[in-house]
Specification:
four-stranded mixed β-sheet, D-Maltodextrin-Binding Protein, domain 2, alpha/beta, 44% helix, 19 helices, 12% strand
Amino acid sequence: MFGKSKMSLVLTLVLSLILFGSTFASAFDLTQFGLKPAEEYDLGGATVTIISWTSDRMSKYFQDNLAVMGRVEEAERIFNCKINWMQDSNQPDINAARLLAGESTHDIWHVQNKKGYWELVANGYVIPLSDILPPEYYEAMPPTLIATEEALKYNGKYWGAGPVEWRPVYGYQNDMIFVAYNKTMFEREGIEDLYELYLAGEWTWDKATEIAVKLTADLDGDGETDQWGIVDVRPWDLAVSNGASITREDENGRVIFTADEPAYLEALEQYYTWWSELEVVMPTYGSSTLRDTFINGKAGMYFYVPAYSLTDQILPNMVDEWGLVPYPKGPRMDEYSWTVQALNTTLIPINAKDPEALVALRTFLWREEDIDTTDLLAAHVKSREAADVFLTANREWDGNASRLFENFLGDFQNVTREVARGAKSPAAAMAELKPVIQGNLDDLFNQ
């Protein structure tokens, strides 16, 4: 038996060894990405500014999340830098202003397809990172992140270094869109479960129509609809489920408008049918009203549920049991399709003094290994079936974004609302939009 003094000595030695070992432990292995070891980068004491519309929450993430606590300080020591978080939603203007003022030599810019990405890339303000990074960098990315970079390719190059995050979701798409449905209502009304239809390959536009008609009801007999079959269906997402897209690259690499093609027009026709002909869609565009109608058990199917809203809005607030499925298959599709409401990545400005070191720093800070799948699922869903759909979406998603060039679509949203009301036909509406949107794209890319 050890005496008390000997036991204290042993504990002191053990703790000393642990501390000694941690002091000299190797940093996170960046060589798996084809980069140098972290210790070989030196930013010379510079301040690295990470600019995002959500930087305040990123800073808090590193302070409060156990898996990453202390990492910023570790990165500052290893890379010989100071990390500054700048919150600014004025992309791309803030980025361009810093570049022109020479203030961006140690910047990392967080952007989205709808928040600065295309403007900064097309104007030559950032470095095409596939020119300076080895192929291993992208090959080592989680599948949904390389799918993002593929979707954001320009001139055949990758420009992004992967996203930054303020939640523990790295490697998953926080903006993946699902259809949520009220399982409690479905059981009460004697309607087949959507998850079972999904598994059987029978979850289609026609089936969604049939169910929406059954669920839409005047419950109190006052002549007003009290229960809706569908809330918040958006035509651009519906179009994806029919294999359609607003734009695509032609054989010459030119980005062209394609929402006037038959597959897209069919989606707009279905949108009109649900909205005006059958009146199974709640006729409002207020997103909070639509969300609350579903949460409060007054709608059967909610057609616009990004992954982040599951955590913040659906999971903590809905009493009824609910489930998830993808968008139903359109008549042209044999498989289900997945889409997102935004694509995120980070860019390095063209005047960066050490762009590879900045990429290495970003890679050091955000890691796939920080995310525990069990914890991730617990934060988003509460059933095995919904977990299956959530993981399948992230595994099968191919980088599709229903409004890839959202900032350049002119009056697309309002014109499609006219289609929903029957004020314009799908063909007439798209013919009206085509020259405007094509002109915007031609101007953006100088094509």
